[in-house]
Structures are given as C-alpha cells and as structure tokens.
Amino acid sequence: xxxxxxxxxxxxxxxxxxxxxxxxxxxxxxxxxxxxxxxxxxxxxxxxxxxxxxxxxxxxxxxxxxxxxxxxxxxxxxxxxxxxxxxxxxxxxxxxxxxxxxxxxxxxxxxxxxxxxxxxxxxxxxxxxxxxxxxxxxxxxxxxxxxxxxxxxxxxxxxxxxxxxxxxxxxxxxxxxxxxxxxxxxxxxxxxxxxxxxxxxxxxxxxxxxxxxxxxxxxxxxxxxxxxxxxxxxxxxxxxxxxxxxxxxxxxxxxxxxxxxxxxxxxxxxxxxxxxxxxxxxxxxxxxxxxxxxxxxxxxxxxxxxxxxxxxx
Length: 313
Hints:
Number of helices: 13
Strand order of the largest sheet: 3-2-4-1-5-6-7
Structural class: alpha/beta
Distance between the termini: 42 Å
C-alpha cells in the first residue's frame, strides 16, 4: 500500500529534506490530523530514554539575552560535530496567530549550515511560554535524527512551566537587571531550572545575584543541585561551561535522576493529550457556533456569551 501524502512527507523529512521538515512542522502547528497520525508511528528515540537527542530548554525573562545565548550554543554544538535543531517560541500576532518576534534573525549566521535547522513557533497564547505543538515538533526533530534540540521560550515569567516537561535540561538565563533571587523564586524559576546562568556578568550586581542564587539553590534542597554560572554570551564567555553543566545534568538523568526525568516525560505526555483534546473541542465548538445561527445575535448583543454557551452545551 502506498504511503499517504503526509507519511511520504515525513519520510522525506527523515531522509534529510529540510523543505519537507518545514512543511511537516507547519502541518503540525495547524493540527493537521494526518500529520499527528504519521508522527505517532515515527521512531522517536526519547520516548524510551533521555539524551537522544539532548533537548535543552532555554528560558528566562525578556531581555536576558536568551537568543544570543542560543546562538552561541549552536556554535558550540556544531564544534562538537552535533547537528542542532532550534525552536524559538515567539509571542503570537493577535491577528494572524503567527510568530511576531522572529528570533531567528539573531541566529541568521547559521542559516547556510546544513547541520542546523532553526524554526520559530507561535505560542498562540498558550500558557507556559510554549506553543501547544512544541512537544510534537520536538518529537519530529528527534525522528529526523538531530543530536541536540534547543527550545527557546518567550520568557513570560510565572507561566514558564511547560518547558520543564518538554526539555531534558532547562537552562534559566538571568541578568543583574532582571532582579534578585527572590524574584526568581516568585516566578517559579528555581523549581524549573537545572542550570542557572547569570548572563551579562560584566555588569554591576552580577556577583551578588550569583551568590543569592547559590544560596537559594542550596536552601531549595532539590534532587539535582543546579549549578549557577556566569557568562557574557555576546562575547562567547562562559558558554562552554554551561554546555558542560547541561551535559552533566543529562548524565544524572540517565543515572540517579532517571525517575525524575521519567516523571517529567509522563507529565509532558499527559499535557499533550489534554492539549490535543482541548484543540479538538475548541474546533468542534467553533463549528457548532457557526452552524447554530446564534453568532449574529451574540455579536449584536441580543444574547449574552453565557446564554449562547448554555444553548450549545
């Protein structure tokens, strides 16, 4: 039996065709039913164990230099002979739903490198700073065979939780200007960070923030003692140390921390199921609203949203 168009597209992506990979991601973002079905049958290595590929989440507040840091991580990975996939999750346009920051601009020097694939995903208003399609796209990049996948989030503060479930290792990037360790704790960053980086560490207040973070990590007494490192990503300083710390965390995930990793992955699978069901329910609700004939009366103010919701329930 001949494969479907989507299965053939997936096969071309796995074979190394970047245009097919880009098209598959577009279909996944659009919740194309056949794209999900094709991906479910693909060989995804990380479903069984961490590290193939090593998925690194990079998060932190806006202005922390995350994109510059990711750019340097790409260079480091390529120097190690790795192929690198990057997902930059951007805020959504309220009109088109598409990504509007275009963080890929800061990484444009890698665009001619066949060993690097960079794609922006729209967050589409999704809590957690991640597109609801991010987990599936990570699985796709896994199936294609990338050695390392970097997921950069929009940096939306207290909702930065989804990255912890998608990534093997979460790198939290902060700056002296982004506030003290207490603010990081309030934002929940201490709970999700596996490696902390004080970027722009040549600025005043960096040493103090490092000390406060070290104390906070010690007091938190988490199963993995997250290292706190300094860097100046714009100059490439400290990036190698961060990459090595991320590798050390991956080794921990493969050993003493395996149960922690498996719990995270389980949480991610549950979240993905709920996202898929939620998207399906919303599409069904939109279709029912349009077919009901109630939408014009709702828009005219003749019926309240609560009235319409009750009628469609």
